[in-house]
Amino acid sequence: MKSDAVPMVRIGGVTKRYGRTLALDAVSFDVAANELFALLGPNGAGKTTLLHILCTILKPDSGTATISGIDVVGRPLLARQNLGVVFQEPSLDDRLTVYENLNFHGLVYGVPAARRKSRIDELLALVELADWRDSLVRTLSSGMKRRLEIARALVHEARVLFLDEPTVGLDAQSRARLWQHVRELRKTRELTVIVTTHYIEEMEGCDRVCIIDKGKILADDAPSTLKTAHGQQLVRIVAIDDAAAGEIVSAYPDLAVRKDADIVIKSSGDAFVEALLARFAGRIRKFSVEEPSLESVFLSLTGRELRDQVAGARERTFQFGKRGGEHTR
Amino acid sequence: MTDLGIGVNGGAAPPHRLAAQFGGLYAIWLREVKRAIRDRGQFIGGVSRPLLWVLILGIGLNPYFRGEIYGEVRFVVPYTYLQFIFPAVIALNIMYTSVQSAVSTIWDREFGFLREILVSPMPRFTILLGKILGGTTVALFHGCLVLALASFADVPIAPGDIALGLGLMFLLAFGLTSLGVVIANRVRSFEGFGVFSNAVILPLYFTSSSIFPLDPSLTSAQTKVVYPEWLVILVQWNPLTYAVDALRGAFIHFHQFDPRLGPIVMVVMAVAFFLIAWRDFQKA
After folding, report:
1. Which residue of chain A has the CA closest to B186?
2. Could you tell me if residue B67 is inside a domain?
3. Most buried one in A8, A126, A253, B1, CB count within 10 A?
4. Which residues belong to CATH 3.40.50.300 in chain A?
5. Which residues of A touch B128 (CB under 8 A)?
6. Distance of alpha carbon A306 from alpha carbon B82, whole angstroms
7. Which of B2, B7, B123 has its CB closest to that of A77?
8. Mean pLDDT (chain B, rounded)
9. Residues of A in contact with B12 (CB under 8 A)
């Protein structure tokens, strides 16, 4: 397709500072039309800052950002017609009904009455909230609220959908359902999706993953390419006896790690695995290959684990700033 | 499909179109009104306040509303106290509701809805205008609740008076809702807002010549002998004094000040507070 040549979203050298902290350091990338693009990084990496710049609610210190050719800094009102956002924190009016929230959005975005009505019905069906149409939003579960927010972001036929940590605070079932809805949405229309998350398993279905840390892009490619380039395939073996185990370990002195009967060997690919199997076939009781995960990619790129991080001083500063700084005190 | 094709059926109406502007304004207005209708507490306050002020305070003080001046007992104002206080209670009800409606500004900020509005293609001016018009409508409605007590207070209801009164009430509600938004932008927390709004509403109300007249039959020098000078100055400097005076002019045809002053002060208040609110909102 020819339109793929024109990037739907283009970011060029975007820099943003909060006081002395550099939140974004000359970040550049393109997102093609119809792509499912993920921004992956720990808290405070700059994902949300970047998203807020693209959503025109934050101005970059320098650099350019365009959405389907519209400059988000210079023409924010026009850019907003083309984008839909689901923020990290809920932004529904919980004293209005599901329908009223969607209708409000449609009115504010200037969607004509007839189209608004049909869009709302269609989207409510898609996110399975049609039965809740006239319920007050405060009676919905958090998973339903998220789905409603996604539906709302699309009432005005946005071409780019931004999802900022859409699955945070949801249980596993709601998370899976949410992603299923996003996939269904992308089947029925042309829609570019940019999602930030720190759940690595959610990245696997994305077309492209951009790993960002401390305001810098570390890698930007398809998940499979990233895994090949930075990930590590592991072979786990349980030998039939001690002697066999010793033999296997001594065959790969640099690659194998032995812990009692369990052996873990860093593999260099399928050929390596085949050769290993051919050589020790009779002496292995249990055998498994662990494909490289994005978790290991992140680990090798940053030297840190992605999850279970205690909020550092930097993250706390960001949180403080987000709440409005000193004015909230 | 070409890029252009998606744009035509995918892009919504351009943001500058007048119809879209009105649609957005209507949406924001409607939301404020709907929220107010669903807020029972606000309605109860709007009903109980005039009942207390008109039925209890008004009826209670009615017999005492006369002065003894140089041995001669007469009404200071040629009206009963109920009639005198009635327009002021309208102003009070509007004042409370207007300023309280600005709480929704804090609410929106706290619970994230502000973001949804700020990323919309509506210009900030329209957003603010919609919000303030919404609050104005609710306040105007609460002002009309007081009108239901007109017959209790022996205030005659003439269509012409009501029309003029409603116009003035709208102007007052608009100015005070803008003031509420200005306060809300500076306070930013529910608790602080409650304290602050009470600290603004009641002193403004009490010093607006709402519950006692500055005797028009006395010269200003004489007034200062009867009332301490600081109180007279406070009343004369309080812009609300002239709003209450204008409402009295509309409903009981009684003015303490130049009748032209009321509408002028009210327009200036509405415009000034709205501009300040707009300036704040552009930075938000």
Report:
1. A327
2. yes
3. A8
4. 2-227
5. none
6. 71
7. B123
8. 84
9. 81, 109-111, 156-157
Fold of A2-227: Rossmann fold (3.40.50)
**Contact state of B120 with A95 under an 8 Å Cβ cutoff:** no
The chain A residue lying nearest B116, using CA atoms, is A91
CATH class of A233-291: alpha beta
Domain that holds residue B269: 25-283
Indicate if the pLDDT at residue B188 is higher than 70: yes
- Provide the ipTM: 0.81
Parts of chain A with a pLDDT under 50: 1-4, 307-311, 325-329
**pTM for the whole structure:** 0.79
Distance from CA of B98 to the nearest CA of A (A): 20
Backbone dihedral region for residue A46 (phi beyond 0: left; psi -120 to 50: alpha; all else: beta)? left
Q: Collect all residues of chain B within an 8 Å Cβ-Cβ radius of residue A88.
A: none
Residue B7 lies in a domain: no
Q: Do A87 and B121 touch (CB under 8 A)?
A: no
Q: What is the pLDDT of residues A195-207, one digit of tens each?
A: 988 777 788 888 9
Residue among B6, B10, B13 minimizing CB distance to A110:
B13
Q: Read out DSSP for A173-217? A: HHHHHHHHHHHHHHHHS--EEEEEES-GGGGTT-SEEEEEETTEE
What confidence tens digit (pLDDT) does each residue in B251-277 have?
A: 988 888 888 999 999 999 999 999 999
- Of A189 and B177, the structure prediction assigns the larger pLDDT to B177
Q: Where are the alpha helices (DSSP H) in chain A?
A: 47-54, 76-81, 98-108, 113-126, 142-153, 172-188, 223-230, 242-251, 270-280, 294-302, 313-322
Q: Which of A48, A91, A108 is most worth mutating to test chain B (most B CB atoms within 10 A of its CB)? A: A108
- Number of domains chain B contains: 1
Q: What pLDDT does residue A329 have? A: 36
Residues of chain A whose beta carbon is less than 8 angstroms from a beta carbon of chain B are 1-3, 6, 33, 55-57, 68, 77-78, 80-83, 85, 87, 89-96, 100, 103-105, 107-112, 152, 156-157, 159, 190, 324, 327-328
The whole-angstrom separation of Cα B11 and Cα A158 is 7
Taking an 8 Å cut-off on Cβ atoms, the answer to whether A111 and B11 are in contact is no
CATH 3.30.70 intervals, chain A: 233-291
Tell if the CB–CB gap between B24 and A87 is shorter than 8 Å: no
Asked if B120 lies within 8 A of A107 by C-beta distance, the reply is no
